[in-house]
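Re: the 158-residue chain
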Amino acid sequence: MSTVTGKPYLFRFEQTSDRAKELLSKIGKKKDVPVSVVDQLTNWIHKNFIEEAPKQLVLAKIDNIANEIKLGNIEGFAVTKGVLEIDIVSVFGTEFVEDGSLYIHLMQADKQRQERLNGTKEHSGETIKTSVITVIEKGRKRAMKKAPVVGQLAFDIF
């Protein structure tokens, strides 16, 4: 057996083998889930929102939205044992949803939370006056249908 610096080659192979076993033992194991619901929701927003404008607006109120999800006030979003579960299909009926629709869905719960805190519903303050209009039709009466001549075929279209 040949040696390198007085030690057999076998020693080097054992070290490599141990390192390979260590690396291979980590394959297939589940990665740790991010600690907080806010982190999980932030990661989901970064993956699923394409446009920057709605993404930034949702991220600005991420703490409020995460609290509403924990309370179960946002349909399709739930927290089970610290893991955020999202079911877009149950809410929208499809997996492909526009950013604006997701933004409106997430912000509705925040708006309702604000209404609960303030005790009032948000409105624009404008008053619109309406009046009832009655429409009376005046016009020509339709002519009566004439019977077909004897021997003529008739088509009743309308």
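The CA atoms of residues 124 and 142 lie 48 Å apart.
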